[in-house]
């Protein structure tokens, strides 16, 4: 009776913990997507603000990029946007005090909207960036610009990431997506041959004593906090890369790849070595008995047999590299540029989230954009995990 | 039994009353508040103060959510943040507790010592690409900025770049320490950090805000006598309804002893 009861308790505890873990993961992914997808409902201009121009202004066609260029003084005349030949006059909220004194605006700024309208009416070339609350739209001579919402194509194909630019932030994620993929793939190109070499050495060639000594040390490498790797990268690797290739800066995609390769090595070595050691003794001995040399046995029997394990090691190594945050944050220079070579600084998705989420106003467009980046990362790693799962299930003896 | 529960509740409640002094926000202000909290606790052993960083934005967000009593910020509260507080029926109070001078730093191997504001703006917006153009050697200008969300970034953009954006694809570093390290290693580097962070690994340039008539060295002395132009106030923000709770600590920082801490940590005193 008692035994039955305790069995039942343990069983329900296990079910409960399984269910709990499952629901938590589900909840996190739902939360991620829910926060992220709200992004596309945000206006392209900072929330709570609007842009106003003089009603004589004929320019209709605005997007985030043009607004940014206007406020950066790169476009200085309305004729460049197809309007009249009038200088653009930038107007931010604080500029009102150049026109009126505090008293004229009223104690609680109750006359502010009216005075704003007067200014906008008087200046033909004006573009004013004003909070909704003091919107002068109802007065004559003022035209509110209708700014479209942020579109998915702005987000996925935009090339500029300026999330805190006012009045119109730019959320182009393409450079970061490419940066992440570039850094991770190059890292795997470095780590794979090296990792496989060490795995073969450890499983087949190393004497038992050395193996027993090396394996725990390599696994220990996986336990070093990534910020330590990052600091090592910044202080040692970055100057090394800079001097070797004679570059203006040492914080490049290559530096990031090298650090990630070092970090992915323990995963690759450990899993690949386990897979190789799982080759049945009978198979190895059969090969040797047929007169094959040790080397022939390794590459004709052991590697094909452990192919699925090796692939899993590679995929998990890529997964580790793509998701790594702190180390790349410190060594890649974090410039949101389209990567054109390995010697340019790049910015990765995890580094962006880590660096910016802390200070992004919660619920704002920037905050949601970061969640959406998280969702993209989630999808990438999901695919990688599915791939790893499929590969490690497949036991393929046919090629042997 | 019931009495015991009541007692326990009273203790828990009392503790939460005592530990009410929560301070959160800017990493730049953090050294001051940490030091001040330590000394404040020595003077008032019964008080409880907990200080955490996270960034100016985090601090003010926590103030809006009511999870902190005092927000420390290295930038002025934004219009929409102030509005959020007003919508919840509160008013926010602002106290400047110190000034921080921002130094423009370059690699010690770089021969340039003077720059005008316009030249610095040109370098950070990508208009000036070579040190040759400002009288230096023939090498590429490599500007490093702070992360877009840091208070230092906002202040630099407002004061030096006159609200223009940094060029797109600028290198950005997560912390002041990493900026110093990168500038030390990179010959063509230019970056900005709080005066307190400047050390012998980097060179602080003299800055002119009057188109090259006078160049001023960044130093505490020049920040106090107001000749150095790139100076920002550091703030405490709290809700007016919490005033009684936080007043003692705010007053302590503004007292001579508190202002001494400000100077010791490398910032400029307000009083």
Blueprint of the fold:
The complex is a heterodimer of chains A (400) and B (271).
Chain A: H1 2-37, E1 49-54, H2 64-71, E2 89-92, H3 96-99, H4 112-122, E3 126-131, E4 142-144, H5 152-157, E5 161-162, E6 170-171, H6 174-205, H7 208-221, H8 226-245, H9 253-277, H10 281-289, H11 294-305, H12 307-323, H13 326-331, H14 349-356, H15 365-393
Parallel strand pairs in A: 2-3
Antiparallel strand pairs in A: 1-3, 1-4, 5-6
Helix pairs in contact in A: 1-15, 6-9, 6-12, 7-9, 8-9, 9-12, 10-11, 12-15, 14-15
Chain B: H1 2-18, E1 21-25, H2 30-43, E2 49-54, H3 56-65, E3 70-73, H4 79-87, E4 92-106, E5 114-116, H5 117-125, E6 142-146, H6 151-159, E7 171-173, H7 176-185, E8 189-194, E9 203-204, E10 206-208, H8 220-224, E11 231-239, H9 243-254, H10 256-265, E12 268-269
Parallel strand pairs in B: 1-2, 1-3, 5-10, 6-7, 6-8
Antiparallel strand pairs in B: 3-11, 4-8, 4-9, 4-11, 4-12
- Beginning-to-end CA distance, first to last residue of chain B: 55 Å
Most strands sheet of chain A: 4 strands, mixed
Q: Unreliable runs of chain A, pLDDT <50, ≥5 residues? A: none
Q: Which CATH class of the largest domain in chain A?
A: Mainly Alpha
- Gyration radius of chain B, in Å: 21 Å
Tell me, rounded to a whole number, the average pLDDT of chain A.
86
CATH fourth-tier homologous superfamily of the largest domain in chain A: MetI-like
What class would the helix/strand composition of chain A place it in? mainly alpha
Oligomer: heterodimer
Q: How would the global form of chain A be characterised?
A: elongated
The CATH topology of the largest domain in chain A: MetI-like fold
